[in-house]
Amino acid sequence: MSPLVFAHFMVGNTYPYSIKDWAEDIDLALKSNLDGFVLNVGKERWQLDRVSDCFEAASRAGCNIKFFLSFDMSSIPAKTESDIQLLAGYLEKFANSDKMLHISDKVVVSTFAGENSLFGQSSLDSAWLWVKRVLRDTVGIEIHYLPSLFIDPEQYTQLSCLDGVFHWNGAWPVHLGSGSSPGEKVFPKLDSDLKHISHLNGRPYTYMASVSPWFFTHYGADSWNKNWIYRGDDWLLVKRWEFLIENRHKIDIVQVISWNDYGESHYIGPVKGAQPNSEAWVNGFPHEAWLHLNSHYIRAFKEGTRHPIIEKDMIFMWARPHPRDAQALEDPLPRPNNWQLADDDLRVVILAKDHAGVVVTAGDTDKQFRIYKGVNLLSMPLQTGGGMSAKMYRETVLVAECSASGYRFEANPKTYNFNAFTAMSA
Fold first, then answer.
1. Is residue 399 predicted with pLDDT exceeding 90?
2. Which SS3 state, helix, strand or coil, does residue 233 take?
3. pTM summary value
4. How far is CA 82 from CA 48, 71, 120, 126, 138, in A?
5. Which one of 1.10.287.3610, 3.40.50.2020, 3.20.20.80, 3.10.129.10 gives the CATH number of domain 4-303?
6. Contact status, residue 174 vs residue 196, Cβ threshold 8 Å
7. What is 314-424's CATH number?
8. How confident is the model at residue 88 (pLDDT cuts 50, 70, 90)?
9. What is an example of a GO molecular function annotated in this UniProt entry (predicted)?
């Protein structure tokens, strides 16, 4: 199977979507080298209608895009045998579409969680073997079961129901080292896939890895009670893709987390639809620069090279909107957990056709860099009250310029916001 790259898509954020909205997202995804969307669906009946619109938009466009379903088992009831009806309803309607991803003539089905979804059975393995059997016998559908289960991977050997695994949490650092001297930079490890792969014991399987540019969520106990960050300050998107490309021969599918999960701040698509009460940290924080940077690495992953030909000089940059230890003036919630992991730096990625000079500006401070052909990673400290920009010169000629219009590193924020503002050159 040729390597595939999909983006995780929260159908729960599409209540106001029209077929036109779906068509715009599908077109943008294909232009960004994605193969399609993983459609995360929950328990609400209206989500089935939005998925129908998605398939209809793809059918009208006549494009070569693929989808598969990720049943959100943190939302979907799965206590009794009758709870299978939601899964069966989706698959009966969409499984035979030419837009649905199949592996070995079986329709791919993923889950978010599911380790506690037993459908009245005695164990996890017996539950999902029962699900597969019922879907085959009652609606005539064979599924290729590719879940994200939050269990110790040592348990994989006990689960004959699996046709593969998806390692959701591999996208972010699993442990952070400390330097041998104060201030020494140590990149977090992003190689936890290797443990998961090793416990599949070489049996035929599909392995799906994850990649993500960021993570920040800020909900109180009166809603989802999620208030933390993962460290993303080491050019996370780039470093994670580099690992995936180096281990490409072990990975069948990469899932980008996410296209539109605004609540966790790792969206790469445009902000549209219905936000899950995340407006305070999402509005005014575009992430399309990550979509375009991600496109470069998708091409590298599919081609099997870390350094695909760069056809255009490009500058990408991003930063948080306030110092990590700033005191918010009006926020009823505390700083997110793990806030200490953040750096008060701007991050720059430059795709250069050839050697050049770069001037990066933070506030009223300029810093000059000599860069080389290929991918260059730069950073510098932010200044409170200031913005950020970068210019790239080759033989005194300006070849690329990135101005983060609308960005300001605010010393005294009203609320805590550890989301990132991204920008890119034209």
1. yes
2. coil
3. 0.96
4. 18, 16, 9, 16, 13
5. 3.20.20.80
6. no
7. 2.60.40
8. very high
9. glucan endo-1,3-alpha-glucosidase activity
